[in-house]
Amino acid sequence: MRIPLVQHSTRRRRARYRRVLWSGAELLVTAGVLVLLLVVHQLWWTNREAKDGAERRVEALEREWEAAPGNDADTDTGTDGSGDGTGGDKKNSDSDGDGSGTRADSGGGSRQSSQAYAVLRIPRLDLRVPVAEGTSKQKVLNKGYVGHYTGTQQPGQNGNFAVAGHRNTHGEPFRYLNRLKKGDKVEVETRNATYTYTVDEILPQTSPRDSGVIRPVPRSLTKPAYGYDAPGRYLTLTTCTPEYTSRYRLVVWGELTSTKPKS
Fold first, then answer.
1. Taking the model in full, what pTM does it have?
2. Is there a domain that residue 53 lies in?
3. pLDDT per residue over 55-67, tens digit each?
4. C-alpha angle 104/110/112, rounded to 5°?
5. Is residue 84 part of a domain?
6. Residue among 167, 170, 233, 249 flagged as catalytic
7. DSSP characters over the chain
8. Is 166 a catalytic residue?
């Protein structure tokens, strides 16, 4: 029987193929590890870091209020819904793709963006989170805070106190906002008082550019069946939906039902 000979060039070629395949496999494994680390960073580390920072800020605010109670910008100024103009600078504020994605009307005032000045509590969700001025991702939302839409009203005032929060990553304070039901309570505490709003309407999905949801009398522009017809003292909570996307916005509305001033 004749035995076929394997030439050296054939063996060298096979060895090159094996090296190429091995190098490719190493690159794929390395890329997979990097992607996994990125996912872990986004879904775990940013949440842990933001949640811890937000909790520390809440505790700091509570200590500050207890030690030095005083006047703040949350007091009502009249019945025309104009408020005290502490909604931030005079530029329109875009939510940067993290809340309702809507533009608030311009407003005046001096409160700095990223400055936490209130605490929002939702008992059903076991949530306690600081509220800061503005809806910038970097300065506010990525810290695990809830951001106040510039130009909307302040807690307790006539009009619409509108805020946005992340649903996923960076503390994800509004992760379970979809679990709220009509009749649930939402508390907003400031230096001077605690304002309790009662949830009475939920818009499961709307466009990111549905600016009507944060107007003084909130009503969806894309789904007009959702919203209000008369002036009042409203709360609007906005976040992204579905989870892990920013394609649409989930909106929860409530009306002020009680105010408890601090002694």
1. 0.75
2. no
3. 999 999 999 998 8
4. 80
5. yes
6. 249
7. -PPPP--HHHHHHHHHHHHHHHHHHHHHHHHHHHHHHHHHIIIIIHHHHHHHHHHHHHHHHHHHHHHS----TTS---SSS-TTS-S-SSS--B-TTSS---BPPP----PPTT-EEEEEEEGGGTEEEEEEES--TTTTGGGT-EEEPTTSPPTTSSEEEEEE--SSSTT-TTTTGGG--TT-EEEEE-SSEEEEEEEEEEEEEE-TT-GGGGSSS-B-SSSTTSB-SS--EEEEEEEEESTT--SEEEEEEEEEEEEEE--
8. yes
Catalytic one among 166, 170, 215, 233?
166
Q: Is the dihedral of CA 138, 215, 202, 257 positive or negative?
A: positive
Tokens 């949830």, located at residue: 199
Q: Which residue in 258, 101, 214 sits closest to 167, CA to CA? A: 101
Please write the tens of the pLDDT for every residue from 98-144: 444 554 433 334 466 568 999 999 999 999 999 999 999 999 999 99
Q: Residue 88 in contact with residue 107, Cβ under 8 Å?
A: yes
We report the CATH number of the domain holding residue 254 as: 2.40.260.10
Structurally, the chain folds into a number of domains equal to 1
Catalytic residue among 148, 167, 233, 240: 240
Structural domain range at position 217 = 63-261
Question: Each residue of 174-214: pLDDT tens digit?
Answer: 999 999 999 999 999 999 999 999 999 999 999 999 999 99
Higher pLDDT, residue 3 or 169? 169
